[in-house]
Design a protein that fits this description.
By secondary structure, the chain is of the alpha/beta class. Helix content is 33%, strand content 17%. A six-stranded mixed beta sheet has the order 1-2-4-3-5-6. The longest helix is centred in the first third of the chain and has 16 residues, at 2-17.
Length: 210
């Protein structure tokens, strides 16, 4: 009996320690005419009646998908309970680079995340739905995407971070399928110049165009 009680205590402790909720939602992207999957991690004390919850948008790297953060860095799930906020992990495509491709109409991930996803999350969940309650960050390609989106949409995100982000894509004309999104560098250099994060710093207050 004592052994059984001990096992029950351990099980209850494990349940309480993982009190967050993980939703998988599919959002229809009108800009790309397809459904896109996203993971949303909700804190244990989430309530539709409480004051809106801050939201962190967390972007995956090249070759990844919307499940990467939750499966490879499971500790992030505990953070929502500890700090009382929501995490959204969108699918950014295999190598979308999180911008609207000027040469491929099927790749509109800037529009998807900055407009379609934001609107859907704010409607479905009790969020703090202004820039003071939104942050964005990501890894590698996602680190590029986080700064790219935050710099270009300062009315949407109030804070941004980049983890090992590729902030200047120009030295990599043959890597990570960037040329599929912007065209061959030798023939479309202006598109690369317009879409590399390092050239968007001027958009920030006090920034200088380089």
């Amino acid at each position: 009996m004592k052994k059984l009680l001990f096992i029950l205590v351990l099980l209850c402790s494990a349940i309480l320690a993982s009190a967050y909720r993980v939703d998988t939602i599919r959002i229809e992207s009108k800009s790309m005419n397809k459904p896109i999957s996203n993971i949303v991690i909700i804190p244990d004390n989430y309530s539709a009646q409480q004051k809106g919850f801050p939201v962190l948008y967390l972007l995956h790297g090249a070759g990844g998908d919307y499940t990467n953060w939750a499966s490879k860095v499971p500790d992030i799930k505990d953070c929502v309970d500890k700090y009382n906020f929501i995490i959204v992990c969108p699918d950014g495509g295999y190598t979308s680079w999180y911008f609207d491709s000027p040469i491929d109409e099927q790749m509109k991930y800037e529009t998807y995340i900055a407009k379609e996803l934001i609107d859907a999350i704010d409607i479905k969940y009790n969020t703090l739905d202004d820039k003071t309650g939104r942050a964005i960050t990501g890894l590698s390609m996602g680190g590029h995407g986080a700064f790219y989106l935050a710099f270009r949409h300062q009315d949407i995100w109030g804070a941004a971070g980049s983890m090992s982000g590729c902030l200047d894509i120009r030295p990599f004309p043959n890597n990570w399928e960037i040329s599929k999104r912007l065209g061959d560098y030798s023939r479309h250099q202006e598109l690369w110049e317009e879409n590399t994060v390092i050239n968007l710093v001027y958009l920030l207050e006090g920034g200088v165009k380089v």
